[in-house]
Amino acid sequence: MASPSSLCADLRGARAAPALPSQISSSSSSAVAFPLRARIGGSLSVSSSSIGRRDLGIGKCSSAGEAANVDVEQVPIEKRFEEFPSVLDINKIRDILPHRYPFLLVDRVIEYQPGVTAVGIKNVTINDNFFPGHFPERPIMPGVLMVEAMAQVGGLVMLKPEAGGSKEIFFFAGVDKVRFRKPVIAGDTLVMRMNLVKFQKRFGIVKMEGKAYVGKNVVCEGEFTLAMASSDDEATSN
Q1: Closest by alpha carbon to 71, among 53, 89, 87?
Q2: How many whole angstroms separate alpha carbon 108 and alpha carbon 24?
Q3: How far apart are CA 67 and CA 65, in angstroms?
Q4: Taking residues 108-114, what's their average pLDDT?
Q5: pLDDT per residue over 56-78, tens digit each?
Q6: Chain-centroid distance, C-alpha 175
Q7: pLDDT in tens, 15-48
Q8: Which of 186, 180, 170 is nearest to 131 (CA)?
Q9: Which of 25, 75, 164, 194 is an S-S bond match for 153, by CB 3.0 to 4.6 Å?
Q10: What does residue 197 show for φ and ψ, rounded to 5 degrees?
Q11: 157 has a pLDDT exceeding 80
Q12: Dmax over Cα atoms in the chain, in whole Å?
């Protein structure tokens, strides 16, 4: 296919060539009255003395880039974005995490390697139960809940038998270097990646690092320490 710049060059060259009387069409004022031969697809050539710019699909050639603006049908905005994949849906998440409403803060997992990494999403909506109080006039997701949501994604990384053994629950043991970069508001989609850094299996201590995004912007990041436990451990501690 001929490039836009080469089509522009052909047009300029054609305009510079003198038109023969037999090649001038007076029936259409929108026609371009000059001979034109443009190679299309490397084999097919088109020759015409009265092909309009609209017929060629060519807009104006810029003086800087010498590129043609080709009129293409615009894709409606609602069809431009792909749906997030679903590696773990909410039902599978509930099978792994012990959390329930109103504290289950992961809606879907879109990438998953047990014992290595996971990417989860939280759809932030005005119906979330924390917005009436934080804040009524400016709904912002509390930073501590962003950290909690990221920790839950970390729990998904480790609470699979092949990753954390027989452990069934986890607790916060520490958070470090947490930074909140931008506010997260109702209507945002929080995308959280958690990576395993170190796992001391003997003690059930997990070191992780994570980042949360809205679009391409980092909104929260930090280092996490989780303590893994089983139901028997929890009963013994009580």
Answers
A1: 53
A2: 65
A3: 5
A4: 97
A5: 444 444 544 444 444 446 899 98
A6: 27
A7: 444 444 444 444 444 443 334 333 334 444 444 4
A8: 186
A9: 194
A10: -105, -45
A11: yes
A12: 102
Q: Are 215 and 201 in contact (CB under 8 A)?
A: no
For tokens 């879109």, the residue is: 110
pTM beyond cutoff 0.70: no
Q: Is residue 50 a contact partner of residue 32, using CB atoms and an 8 Å limit?
A: yes
What is the distance between the alpha carbons of residues 143 and 157, in angstroms, rounded to a whole number? 22
Distance between CA atoms of residues 158 and 154, nearest Å: 7
From the candidates 15, 37, 60, 134, which is the catalytic residue? 134
Active site residue 134: yes
In a 13 Å sphere around the CA of 129, the CA atoms on its Cβ side amount to 5
How far from the centroid of its chain's Cα atoms is residue 38's Cα? 40
Using CA atoms, how far apart are residues 40 and 56, in angstroms rounded to an integer? Answer: 11
Neighbours of 113 (CB within 10 A): 14
What percent of the chain lies above the pLDDT cut of 70?
Answer: 63
CA quadruple 154, 156, 157, 160: dihedral sign: positive
Contact indicator for 211, 218 with CB cutoff of 8 Å: yes
Q: How many CB atoms lie within 10 A of CB 174?
A: 11
Helices (H), the chain: 4-16, 53-56, 90-96, 143-158, 161-164, 231-237
Using CA atoms, how far apart are residues 149 and 124, in angstroms rounded to an integer? 11
